[in-house]
Design goal:
Layout (H helix, E strand, L loop, with lengths): L20 H16 L6 E2 L8 E2 L10 E9 L3 H8 L5 H13 L5 E11 L4 H18 L2 E9 L9 E12 L14 E6 L8 H11 L7 E2 L4 E2 H5 L7 H10 L4 E4 L4 H7 L6 E6 L7 H10 L3 H5 L6 E7 L4 H10 L4 E9 L7 E4 L5
Parallel strand pairs: 4-5, 11-14
Antiparallel strand pairs: 1-2, 3-6, 4-6, 7-12, 7-13, 8-9, 10-12, 11-13
Helix pairs in contact: 1-4, 3-4, 5-9, 7-11
Amino acid sequence: MSETPVVSEGGASYAAAGVDIEAGDRAVELMKEWVKKTQRPEVLGGLGGFAGLFDASALKGYDRPLLASATDGVGTKVDIARRLGVYDTIGHDLVAMVMDDIVVCGAEPLFMTDYICVGKVHPERVAAIVKGIAEGCVLAGCALVGGETAEHPGLLGPDDFDVAGAGTGVVEADRLLGADRIREGDTVIAMAASGLHSNGYSLVRHVLLDRAKLDLDAEIAELGRTLGAELLEPTKIYSLDCLALTRTTDVHAYSHVTGGGLAANLARVIPDTLHAVVDRSTWTPGPIFDLVGTTGQVERLELEKTLNMGVGMIAIVPQDSTDVALTTLADRGVESWVAGEITARGDRTTGAELVGDYAS
């Protein structure tokens, strides 16, 4: 005969199970001021509703508006933030990973929602994460219309967390960018990354922290700062820069360099009949890439299919628009350069390749 288990220390409750509703409410109050800074005139209502509202009548000015959507997270970079106790930059990474995907097709970012999952709600910590997301939304030109904070005791440790987000943008149908616009002879323009961005951190953590046992607080001479500061450098948000470029010149396509590396992401926007050739000698990857490669004895091709190697976004433009494109980006403070060209595919099996050696 079985016996029903008895809770010996008082009745069961949500709080006793590890979920603190009051802390969650406190976190919402703390984040409201940051969310308010992201508001666009099309946003209706405030934070706290069951759904974020965006006035779609703003799209009446389009002949054929196409909505673009994307969702992403920042991967194991959150572990670096957790170890260092720095929570107000990881949100920039989240916005960049979502909105820089959306702008690739030429879409203007409109709004975003976030999902923050924690082992235990620390209101100030959650608010710091949202602060970073809100600041990123301002840089991307979009509104943060809502989100969710979930407390998962027993599944996550008290200091563990993860973030994810989803975004929406809009583009006029006849201005949609992509493979069908690319032509032989087009110029491949590279835009500099701010660092590792938010991809490849499982490799980076394995090499630098697990195997080499480097201290995140250690000053690394070749980096010019601590290892932790380098690894937490926020992902650059290119959204408004890309939109500005599409207004000044005839951009044919963009490629956001994320997981998989430069060649693989560039190949995603190249048509079957064409090929992108990128010359490594046109830039020098930052010292963090050499540190990972040398410390872990990681082969170059492995690095290149895992990390961005110093290029965060690619623009493909007609050859006669190259100078205007470079000037536009320079005026906006974006480091950029001609990295290659579009050629006929021939008997090549891939849509993009890196050639030559990196500049020293």
